[in-house]
Amino acid sequence: MRIILLGPPGAGKGTQAVRLVERLGIPQLSTGDMLRAAVAAGTPIGLKAKAIMDTGQLVSDDVVVGIVADRIEEEDARKGFILDGFPRTTYQAEQLEAITSPGHIDLAIYLEIPTEVVLGRLAGRRVCTECGTNYSPQSPPKAGTRCDVCGGEVVQRKDDTEGAIRRRLTLYEQETAPLIAWYQGHDKLVTVDAVGHPDEVNARLIRAIDDRRQAIPVPPPARPTRTTNA
Ligand code: AMP
Predict the structure, then answer these.
(1) What does pTM read for this prediction?
(2) Residue range 175-197: average pLDDT?
(3) Rounded average pLDDT over 100-108
(4) Which of 125, 126, 188, 204 does the annotation list as catalytic?
(5) Which residues are 128's β-sheet partners?
(6) What share of the chain has pLDDT > 70, as a percent?
(7) Is 50 known to be catalytic?
(8) Residue 228 predicted with pLDDT over 60
(9) Which residues pair with 190 in a beta bridge?
(10) Of 36, 188, 211, nearest to 100 (Cα)?
(11) Ligand 1 atom at minimal distance to the Cα of residue 88
């Protein structure tokens, strides 16, 4: 399946994507993670993106579309993927159709969550600098500031400060929220309540995906070709 996770920063897209990877056996394609990796590696894209990301603005459409176009060509993404943080603008959604094919995306899942819940989550969010695992005040790393998964350093993201959070939420409303109607218009949208423990939200997501899978017509088996004895 080819799935898009939509929703404001702090809705739990990354947390849910990691769980879906395990469940569905398809990779998570997070443009935020890919850009942070480029920043850490000091690539030309990373050098340009760093200041933009730190202040909570959007990296240019063409850069992000290029990154995604390259990534979905890789072998592991052939049987499906979970897009997390992309598309973020209508232009990106249109480009995604152009680099895959119209109707190629099976499902856009909108993680619906009130702004006040998101503000609380983002202020308390901590993240591993090595593997990207998220932590919260309710589930902090067991070993202080070291990641439970890989032992990397756990810090607050530069764009989880108050000013940057405000800017990201405004940009979300202006640029990304219109995609909810866009995918509804393409008959791909499912809305899932994203309030609650990640396990509960995950169970809702799995139900939504299973319902959709059942609704997708299964193609008839290929007919065996006849051999004739000449
Ligand atoms: P995220 O981890 O998804 O919150 O993304 C972190 C930051 O990376 C965003 O605030 C943007 O600066 C940048 N970014 C990630 N995905 C995109 C995208 N699809 N379009 C533009 N900028 C993006």
Answers:
(1) 0.87
(2) 96
(3) 88
(4) 125
(5) 154
(6) 93
(7) no
(8) no
(9) 109
(10) 188
(11) 19
